[in-house]
Amino acid sequence: MQRFALLGAGFIGSVHARNLHLNKNIDFRVVYDVDGGRAQSIADEYGLTVAPTIDAVFDSGEIDAVLIASSTDMHAEHLRRAADAGVAALVEKPIDLDLVQATEVTRYVQASGIPAMVDFNRRFDRNHNELKRIIDGGEIGKVELIQMSGRGPSLPPLEYLRVSGGLMRDQTVHMFDLARWIVGTDPTHVFVTGSALSDAQVAEIGDIDTSVATLRFEDGTIAQIDSVRRTGYGYDERIEVMGSDGLVESGRQQVGAVSRYHGRHKTTDGLHEGWAQRVEATYATALDAFVNALETGSPLPNTLDDGLKAQAIAEAATRSLRTGQLEPIIYVQ
Amino acid sequence: MQRFALLGAGFIGSVHARNLHLNKNIDFRVVYDVDGGRAQSIADEYGLTVAPTIDAVFDSGEIDAVLIASSTDMHAEHLRRAADAGVAALVEKPIDLDLVQATEVTRYVQASGIPAMVDFNRRFDRNHNELKRIIDGGEIGKVELIQMSGRGPSLPPLEYLRVSGGLMRDQTVHMFDLARWIVGTDPTHVFVTGSALSDAQVAEIGDIDTSVATLRFEDGTIAQIDSVRRTGYGYDERIEVMGSDGLVESGRQQVGAVSRYHGRHKTTDGLHEGWAQRVEATYATALDAFVNALETGSPLPNTLDDGLKAQAIAEAATRSLRTGQLEPIIYVQ
Amino acid sequence: MQRFALLGAGFIGSVHARNLHLNKNIDFRVVYDVDGGRAQSIADEYGLTVAPTIDAVFDSGEIDAVLIASSTDMHAEHLRRAADAGVAALVEKPIDLDLVQATEVTRYVQASGIPAMVDFNRRFDRNHNELKRIIDGGEIGKVELIQMSGRGPSLPPLEYLRVSGGLMRDQTVHMFDLARWIVGTDPTHVFVTGSALSDAQVAEIGDIDTSVATLRFEDGTIAQIDSVRRTGYGYDERIEVMGSDGLVESGRQQVGAVSRYHGRHKTTDGLHEGWAQRVEATYATALDAFVNALETGSPLPNTLDDGLKAQAIAEAATRSLRTGQLEPIIYVQ
Amino acid sequence: MQRFALLGAGFIGSVHARNLHLNKNIDFRVVYDVDGGRAQSIADEYGLTVAPTIDAVFDSGEIDAVLIASSTDMHAEHLRRAADAGVAALVEKPIDLDLVQATEVTRYVQASGIPAMVDFNRRFDRNHNELKRIIDGGEIGKVELIQMSGRGPSLPPLEYLRVSGGLMRDQTVHMFDLARWIVGTDPTHVFVTGSALSDAQVAEIGDIDTSVATLRFEDGTIAQIDSVRRTGYGYDERIEVMGSDGLVESGRQQVGAVSRYHGRHKTTDGLHEGWAQRVEATYATALDAFVNALETGSPLPNTLDDGLKAQAIAEAATRSLRTGQLEPIIYVQ
């Protein structure tokens, strides 16, 4: 039984809170947020203690692990605190928007020896996982060509976009991680082109909302990733992997199985309204995998280094947007 | 090369004419219709001779086979003429609406020794054929439960319905034949219930437009068949067969592979507009199978006896509609 | 906040226990089972009191509602106890296998005035619900023809079958309820034929494992329902409703959205392993609807009378199996 | 009625021959091939005259149009002959592998005033056409992101690859044309990366068999195109277009509608065996569109200039493969 504290009680914090409560191997005890009212509300729902300060979380000595769902600019600080306290950490991506600082904190945490994992929750999606299992089982031979789409339903608020680090670092980074995970090696080069099509203000803040990225791997494998902020038709995520001996696809996920036939058309349920509905179950699965690793002492399913590598790809991708060239990806040591 | 005459130049005759023209093993020579103008129009299109009388078709001595697509009440007479002339015959169903007369002409034709086949074209549908191949290959074990739908898009003209023999003899008979073909034995009992829902005039002429039939086979296998005259959403035909070791389905056939995602729905192409569009290709395949049997001397894929048996089921089905009981099926000897 | 006791701590009881625990409007307090050890195990998991006797459940005065998941032969007795105690009741189907006794207890409960509902959980399936919403919204016009399949993956133990009341009363009864719910009126006649195909012992105990039922409604609407105990390919449930203006289908539900293309085939995820996996979510939804009705005082989504009517159809269906006739359905007053 | 000659009697010539024969507005008269035996074989099948020389085709004065299906290196010469003879021409792509020479012959033909069209047959695919109709009807708003796949089942013979001009000019050029057609404007830049993965000999001849291309349009629209020589699972072609108001897809086309459920999987028919099976119908439709334009004097559905533009994109794409940069596309004037 792992005793947990939750740092951050915003939207994603409340998703995590429910999963922390339901997990049978977790003793969910404490919640902290800079906004005490938000923390109290979650504490009331699940019978928790509200920590008045971040110090109070770690000084109690009654916590085995923290789930860091605080604002992005606090991730690095909270990781250091966990390392200092010898407490395991599951952190929302990114480690830090600045790759240099993300690297520094990663090395600091690694030196401390605490178990630490970035919450790349999409790796835990039921269908993506099945796709990975099929590939690893050799059913499609050697991976040769990947096609991935990650498309959100509507433009997030501009205030969010301004601090997001841009499309590559904020959204496509999930797909960069999945590409590494699927292929099993690190891509060496990336090319990206993008446009701001949904709203003129996106261009004004120097960002894009529609893009196509191409990754190259050492052995000639190629991955193509499109990212979109606003589809208008729901949350659209799809992975397709062609190998030397077949193709496997984790397809678009429709909400239901109801079909209608009228006149000349068949109409069925469409996609999930947003990413939250689509990937909801993955947070519980990722958390469960983290806790199982803690309980059994087995290796974590992913590490802070995975976080750094996905960020390194996002950096090169952002550079490619500017240069119009296939850019080498520079992984930090 | 088989020299063919076509008897009947109406709608279905014109479908056959095109297939007779395109088939490489057929020398399509003559067309006959009581309406000489209709015959001439087809003759002009394919470079044929118009036979002025039915005698002229058979007396010429230049014909190896006839395709009988004349009006239903002429089928028996034309079959006898073919038997007398020693010419092979492919006849549209039914042999005759009256089962006793159908039996008589069948025996007469069989005594003559000519090859004769009822054009149960649905057996030649690409997908139904594949379903049959899978079942015969043992992939789903022993057949236990069949579900079939045959649903037309709109009510045929009342003049047609008045002479059609009723829903069971006119439309469901195709499915009765398919059920025998799939199971490989003859059903022993049938129960049917039906309603007239699309138009009050259907009830007035003593017919129904919506029905569910249940067939029982000696070994306990059960088949369910629904028949509908008017769907409003196109032509809907579907066969599903459950066996002791799996299920196989020849599914609804959508016209195309175009999908649209808008808001909360996905919209795709619907079904074929009518049966003619849906089963068009089966006429050519059935004709080809008939000609191949003539050319090679191999057994015909189906015979007049198959026609009689499907009609016998339709007779018992019509009786069940009146009695509300599971009726035994009486096959003629 | 409704204070609940759970009666019955077997397999289905443990499913209910989890839902009682998670529901925010429920204060889950007490569990009772004739097997005290089973009750204790659930009590430990959710922090409950174990009631040593059935009296202890009702005498405490601290319970607003009971969920009756005890063995079928105890349902009637537990319903009477709830009525006597003035406590609301949600009861697993059937009320009682004997329709006369089921009617008596229903009238007794109704006289007491307590809210009481049969847990016809399939009405709460997300897709069936959407189908119902579409029909009620008039999108397919007047309902004319229904096709339903309910097929279990494997034969239940013979000990279970012996006390189940037979296929119609045990399994098809769910579909009889759904048919009434979809059409909005009560069927007047039923015809059924069935076979024992999966295991010779099924016939020995006088039961069947494969059947096709046909229901007729006053206005000519027809419903066809097939029921199977053993598919070999998972749990297969499907509802299709044709109306005067289109068709709506709550289709087969595949477990996932992973597809593979190899050689000449595409392979995708199949169906759920069993009914428990397929309908799991419906229990929580049904419970939620029950509690909401208690909290708001609004009408229950279904009542004991719905249970009686579905059972009355099952009785006539069982009779039809013997007579081979379309049987009138006799609803008790 | 247009009197036609067919130039070239190889594999694709024989496909065209059948369509020329079946088209009701075509009087198919003459066939020519450098290999007289091949020409004779087609002449025998359709009752044609074999032209002994190319001069004989054009000097007869009895021809209104030619279908040029000769070897690629003869296309330009045959186009010039048609222009000199004042005979309409439908030519297989490419006009000439050398873009400069293709441009010269295009200008020469245009100066002659004859109607001339490149046979970009994929524009005439039923589903791609429906996709185009939906987009042009404004149903998905402004086009923003396109994803296309064109993947062949197996590596063509190396002798063919050696003279093909490389993957971009030979195969991807079809998709470049479709991208222009869908968007309605010309892309300005292209980036491509590719690998030789199926066979070491592909790299030895300086070609690739797996690639991802990205196109940019003036208004920010982006298209992604992957091309593969060897899938191992059949011919895979797919187009997906996201607009500001929805998405439309011309999906993978499965051969049939047969499904099987066994154990934990559903298996359906896979894709067409090769491109010939998949796009067979498009040749007849394209030919029909060409003939209709000749008969009615309406504009041709596509022109030699469309051929030049698709080739210009392929040239820039081939350059990008070398430079690793987003390359400007230089359209000839």
Question: How would you describe this protein?
Answer:
- The structure is a homotetramer of 333-residue chains.
- Chain A is α/β, with parallel strands linked by helices and 333 residues long.
- The first copy, chain A, has 2 domains: 113 residues, Rossmann fold; 179 residues, 2-Layer Sandwich (Dihydrodipicolinate Reductase, domain 2).
- The first copy, chain A, contains 11 helices and 15 strands.
- In chain A, strands 12-11-7-10-9-8-15 form a 7-stranded mixed β-sheet.
- In chain A, helix 5 packs antiparallel against helix 11.
- The mean pLDDT of chain A is 96.
- At the A-D interface, strand 7, strand 8, strand 9 and strand 10 of A face strand 7, strand 8, strand 9 and strand 10 of D.
Helix fraction of chain A, binned, reads 40-55%
Distance between the amino and carboxyl termini of chain A:
35 Å
Instruction: Tell me the name of the CATH class of the largest domain in chain A.
Output: Alpha Beta
Taking all residues together, what is the mean pLDDT of chain A? 96
Question: What is the third-level CATH name, the topology of the largest domain in chain A?
Answer: Dihydrodipicolinate Reductase, domain 2
CATH superfamily of the largest domain in chain A: Dihydrodipicolinate Reductase, domain 2
**Coarse morphology of chain A:** globular
Question: Main β-sheet of chain A: number of strands, strand sense, barrel status?
Answer: 7 strands, mixed
